[in-house]
Amino acid sequence: MGPVVDRDQIGVEGAPPAPSADVVVIGAGVAGLAAARALHDAHVRVAVLEARPRIGGRVYTRRVPGLALPVELGAEFVHGRVRETLDIADEAGILLGEMSHTWWSVAGGKLHPPGDDDWAIGKVMALLDPDRTPDRTFASFLETLRADPGTSAAVVAAIPDALRYVQGFDGADPARVGERWLAVSEAAGRRDQHDHTYRIPGGYDQVPAALAAHLPPDAIRLSTVVREVEWEPGRVAVFADTATVTGRAAIVTIPLGVLCARADGTPGPITFRPDLGAAVRSALGGVAMGGALRIVMQFETAFWDTLPVSGGGEPPDDLSFLSMGSDEFAVWWTSFPLRASVLTAWMGGPQAEALASLTSDELADRALRVLGRACGIPRARLGGMLAGSWYHDWHNDPFSRGSYSYGVAGGIDAPRVLTQPIAKTLFLAGEATDPDGRGGAVHAAIASGQRAASAVLAMLG
Fold first, then answer.
1. 318 and 328 in contact (C-beta within 8 Å)?
2. Is residue 313 classed exposed, middle or buried when 0-12, 13-18 and 19+ CB atoms within 10 A define those classes?
3. Cys bridge to 158: 18, 64, 120, 385, which one at CB 3.0-4.6 A?
């Protein structure tokens, strides 16, 4: 088992200016921490600069007094039998629990079991062409399916569900996301065995903590907002509010939404002098930051377990995912395989971005209304059963500016361009740079950090 780590003591906040390092890593999410660990293991001096007062980035776990389970406000699931994450968990002794993939729907105050074809969406997604030239958007792909008289009735019937799936799971805008990217992403999911999904009962923040545990305590500087990077081949100078750090190379792991942002007076965007170059800027236009909203709700009791089953029969003993049949917050999930009176409401895509201006209370009210209508429980009564709710606004968070990335039409090669070193001095990492169709996933971010570290080590010789 790896070292036991106090997550609240990782990193140094307000420390004196850091000395120069061999490599400067910008961002202490899992990509940055994975890169830093690989470099440190190779005896390379590394300095990690993190804008937030915590490590983890879009892995954000909160522990609430009186609630047995940690509250996940960012990444929650391990999607597939992915070695990048599972190896860290095995080494650090992190417990994982496998979820059920059975989807039940809730309507009219009753639970409705899955139909005979519980993954009709697959009929649509299987028709995506990973080599289509020219590429087109998913919306255009669906229009073609509808207009084609040869399209089967089963595929046509599944199109609305496929549309909700791409918006919800991928957090993507159907009018922007590319057919080729979706096809490659679906294939990557099959390779990763996405039919196996795990959650981490002790909190997902155990993963970044396990990576950080291998670094010297003073290697990570928290609350250090990087403003500018000056560089030339073989030299970087990173200017932050509280420190200036120099090195031979820099690994930049900030989220796509921040990397693409222009300075507008709010913290987050970084100025590169000279600029990253036309090829990189063009490639950044081939990926986009998707939107997603999640609200974690604790109730007095797990009342959904007691809802009657349509047509009779016993309620499921592995209830994981629930569909509410609503345009807003259509997807919910339980704490299975653990039992707790907690439900998570989820919504992704353009609709989530449109609602990002609402307050947490307003969003919770909308979610409760959806849940109440489906379960046949008046909103006022349901609100009286609510013990607490938690939400983080990733869309307006200046250090993320969105939830996770997806590939736009015509941008299938963008991640591969982003993985290329810039003058053997700047190296980009993060889930948006994954060239294998796994963008948006924690294991893709870990792999990107490890890949960047390998490239730096090759450069350093």
1. no
2. exposed
3. 120
Q: Which residues pair with 217 in a beta bridge?
A: none
Q: Which two tokens stand for residue 321?
A: 């995912």
Which residue in this structure is represented by tokens 């169709």?
Answer: 437
Residue 190, C-beta contacts closer than 8 angstroms, at least 6 positions apart: none
Closest by CA to 351, choosing from 323, 336, 331, 334, is 331
Residues for the chain: how many in total?
461
Beta-bridge partner residues of 344: 296, 333
DSSP conformation class of 304: G
| CB-side neighbour CA atoms (13 Å) of 362 | 6
- Cα separation, 265 vs 230, whole angstroms: 20
Q: Give Cα 432 distance to the centre of its chain.
A: 10
Strand 342-348 to strand 292-299: parallel, antiparallel, or no bridges (unpaired)?
antiparallel
pLDDT tens by residue, 339-396: 899 999 999 999 999 999 999 999 999 999 999 999 999 999 999 999 999 999 999 9
CB 74 within 8 A of CB 58: yes
Nearest to 418 by CA among 257, 284, 275: 284
Q: Which of 170-174, 309-313, 340-344, 359-363 has the lowest mean pLDDT?
A: 309-313
The rounded radius of gyration (Å) of the Cα atoms in the chain is: 22
Token digits of residue 69: 């389970």
Amino acid at 294: R
C-alpha 23/C-alpha 15 separation (Å) is 19
Beta strands in 241-368 (DSSP E): 244-247, 249-252, 271-273, 287-290, 292-299, 321-323, 331-333, 342-348
Which token pair is 310?
């349509």
Q: 196, 80 in Cβ contact below 8 A? A: yes
202 token code pair: 């002790």
pTM of the model: 0.93
Cis peptide before 274 (omega within 30 of 0): yes
Q: Cα–Cα distance between 439 and 447 in angstroms, integer? A: 11
3-state SS string for 7-34: HHHCCEECCCCCCCCCEEEECCEHHHHH
Q: Place 14 in a pLDDT band, splitting at 50, 70 and 90.
A: very low
Long-range contacts of 2-8 (CB under 8 A, 24+ apart): 2/91, 2/92, 2/93, 2/210, 2/213, 2/214, 3/213, 3/214, 5/209, 5/210, 5/212, 5/213, 7/54, 7/55, 7/205, 7/209
| CA distance to 27, 237, 422, 453, per residue, from 459 (Å) | 21, 18, 11, 10
Instruction: Check: CB of residue 211 under 8 Å from CB of residue 88.
Output: yes
Distance, in Å, from the CA atom of 28 to the CA atom of 32, rounded to the nearest integer, reads: 5
